[in-house]
Design brief:
citrate transmembrane transporter activity, about 475 residues, about 70% helix, transport, Mg(2+)/citrate complex secondary transporter, mainly alpha, about 0% strand, Citrate_transporter
Length: about 475
Amino acid sequence: MLTILGFAMIATFLVLIMMKKMSPIAALVLIPALFCVFVGKGAHLGDYVIDGVSSLAPTAAMLMFAIVYFGVMIDVGLFDPIVRAILKFCKADPMRIVVGTALLAAIVSLDGDGSTTFMITVSAMYPLYKRLKMSLVVMTGVAAMANGVMNTLPWGGPTARAATALKVDATDIFVPMIPALAVGLLAVVVLAYVLGLRERRRVGTLTLDEALVREPESETVLVGAGAGGRTGASAASSTGAGAGAGAEKASAGAGDSRDPAAEGDASDDDFQGLDPNRATLRPKLYWFNALLTVALLSAMIMELLPIPVLFLLGAALALTVNFPHIPDQKARIAAHADNVLNVSGMVFAAAVFTGVLTGTGMVDHMANWLVDTIPEGMGPHMGLVTGLLSLPLTYFMSNDGFYFGVLPVLAEAGQAHGVSTLEIARASIVGQPLHMSSPLVPAVYVLVGMAKVEFGDHTRFVVKWAVLTSLVILAAGILFGII
């Protein structure tokens, strides 16, 4: 009976969030609470939730302060020289432009927010693609895959969800996976190079002055639910279509998608990508911010302190030094509050789901059933099985559904065959390059909307390459003995 109720709870949760009948946070709380009563253990619900919250608090703290930290770094201009350098590297060579798109998307993805990544990348690269008449689906596809690989960062979402669902340390999942993920990112860059060569053969190479011949711009229309008919860059920076960064974050981090040649002479500096005059810039503190970020990431990889403590200290130091006046600090925190609240709220709500699933014994019963159905020969290879399943499952369902509903069952089944929970957790993140183009990901609508690409065209182009990238990561993980 517990097996049936467990799968029924997961199915109910998945259906409701996929049909958008409930928000993930509401579904994570109400559905397990209801099933806890059905199981006859409603009196223990409080204990389950408190146990879950206690174990998930470090993950929530890490996400909260990582979002604030990287949001502030974008605000103060840490990534501006990188963006300008990439755009100068691109010149008007299609091959360089496509490779530059992959590099820019990967770098900006450090903030862990897909919407912001796509806003900055498209704002910077769209004028070049437009003037050279390059394929815009190449831009959206490469940006989505690069962001998908980088989305596995501990503060990006999937790794934190896996750590939350399996009650393990996000560092233990991510740090060993760095070599495999580096291979995946290299695969995206190589693919960008190949696609760029194809575009070069198709459109040729122009000088920068020729590329800057001005063409009339049409309105940018965001597609998908929530666009609400808004057009232009203002729509891209609104909260519609899942642009979770918020209007202020978009204006501070992404600039707009106006014609860069309209502001001055036809030179490399016209391709800014980021608003060079935003009030939050702190050019005199650039090297401080750069060294702080390098030190923070190095300390994370070396595990000098727990990740939540590192980002808590980093965010506090970044705010204090860059914005010494309290009203300015409050404004920066408010600018990123939407992301912080959504992500941390999701983590604490997940405490109810995972607490009930574990406390009532449903996950144990489901795992036993799954172990009995998996062929004996596949049991010791549950890491490979999990990695392969992560591709279709994270594409056709949300990360919440997969990591909180399916992954605990796979982990229990793996443990029964001697496969560690950490190995299952690492394998579960390999499907993210494909997931970032899923129709269930709101940020993808920001990407295709700003790039003026039909979602169907983007899907037809990117799926095969994203699957290949995910398989490369999985193969590298197995080859390096990580999975």
